[in-house]
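Question: Hello, beginner here. Any chance you could explain the protein record under this note? Any guidance would be welcome.
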Amino acid sequence: MSTESSSAPRWKYDVFLSFRGEDTRKGFTDHLYTVLDDKGITTFRDDPELQKGEYISPALFAAIEESRFGLIVLSQNYAWSTWCLDELVRILKCMKARKTVLPIFYDVDPSVVQK
């Protein structure tokens, strides 16, 4: 008999990866995504061709809600992006009761992020 509850949520993604593309996409984030994928960890990251607009698309919000963990790559310009901050707010809201958020400080001191 399985010890898991039949009402336990089934996640589409293990990890939602939030990052500032111009800071980390072509280096750190691509490498991190590849390592997670190689380990069989289903990870959502936005498409570089994703339409940038004033608001985050409903599909992106859905991916956040369908992810078990939030992995936030906090970089030099992360907090300057309205898009990133909107993602972060949604991640924290969704993760508050049922999931985990893990920060990665990339080329930025944690004390700077606190400000």
Summary: The beta strands are 13-18, 43-44, 67-74, 100-105.
